[in-house]
């Protein structure tokens, strides 16, 4: 990475500043090799550049959907100014940043994913006037485009405001002027908190936590039922994920020679080539690591005879993620005890998927899967029955640990801010997408189970769409039954 020049004013400062404040001189790196810029060089860099404005741009694929979402938001909060930020870059170390991922609320309403963006809905007599505030193309007059660490020649070209208007179907303005406008604003305001400290500071005397939470909750619940565009994107994410799992199976011999990191890297390559990223840290848990629910260190050995619990999902360019888990025999064949545990989890998942129906209670699929697992634990003599007693006391949770699923979308645990009565205590509707993922985990140090069980962890997870007449398994492209898994692995290795 080149280190000649220092970034300009930090993004959060630029966003919070007024127009005059944002025009500070571009700072030089403390230990850069060039002490300054001569007048002659500055003048030279201002001229001789071709016109690269993009014209005739078509709206993004989801423009009609984002417009409908904004209309629903406008109808819910008439007469109020609504502020939804994308967020700012976050420092990883010193002067390097993490890859930026827009806030879900902002991307859901605009389709835009650039840092420092802010969507503002200004109240009018008959609804709201929408404006998307963005950083314009980096300035060529003051040298920002080549001197700033966030300038065009350092990190790439930004869309102009005119280009953004064409792409997103929303009037665009310079975000560096927004904070001052918000300071001067009057009337009721709501903001989505936690993404842009500068914007929040400009509104500090105008908002309340309770009112802002109502906005966040509404935007979370709006995502419970997916539209056709979203369902299509989730299917794309799942299809790429299926190919990623196939990639992993093909290189298990190389993972045995290295570590779980080889599995992680293999799946990440598929995610990066076909999508934006992984939707969450891939869980590549071999052997007893499979008993750690969110094992993302991925630094352990991959041994023949062990199981590999792979929980991973590709995130599309539009930020919709898959979330799929398979528990695979590293050498291609389940041992007798592994198969016993695996088949029990498969049976529980079958019961859970069957319970995903329009009009069913959200909890039904969890209860169905937990009952099957509890029956198995009692049958094996690992916990004293009857089954009803075990379920009432939750004793099965020593080995099942987690809930059986969650909503899925732009977040892997989507709609997390929704009210309990509309989510966990709610009813399933066509268009909802959720995971069904029962598991059994026998910790390596669990002395309450026979030694043969210890260190075995099994989870099977699929992404299920609620349809008008039942459900559709979006991840059906991956086999689930133990004999089918073995045959599938053999065909890929063969």
TrEMBL record:
Enzyme class: hydrolase
Name recorded for this polypeptide: Xaa-Pro aminopeptidase
A GO CC term attached to the entry: cytosol
UniProt xrefs under Pfam families: AMP_N, Peptidase_M24
Protein family: Belongs to the peptidase M24B family.
UniProt key word Protease: yes
GO biological process: one example: proteolysis
SMART domains noted in UniProt: AMP_N
Source organism superkingdom: Bacteria
Catalytic activity: Release of any N-terminal amino acid, including proline, that is linked to proline, even from a dipeptide or tripeptide
Domain Aminopeptidase P N-terminal per the UniProt entry, residue ranges: 60-200
Source lineage: Bacteria, Bacillati, Actinomycetota, Actinomycetes, Kitasatosporales
Enzyme Commission number(s): 3.4.11.9
Alphabetical keyword list: Aminopeptidase, Hydrolase, Manganese, Metal-binding, Protease
CDD domains: Prolidase
GO molecular function: manganese ion binding; metalloaminopeptidase activity
Cofactor: Mn(2+)
Taxonomic source organism: Streptomyces monashensis
Region annotation (Disordered) ranges: 1-37
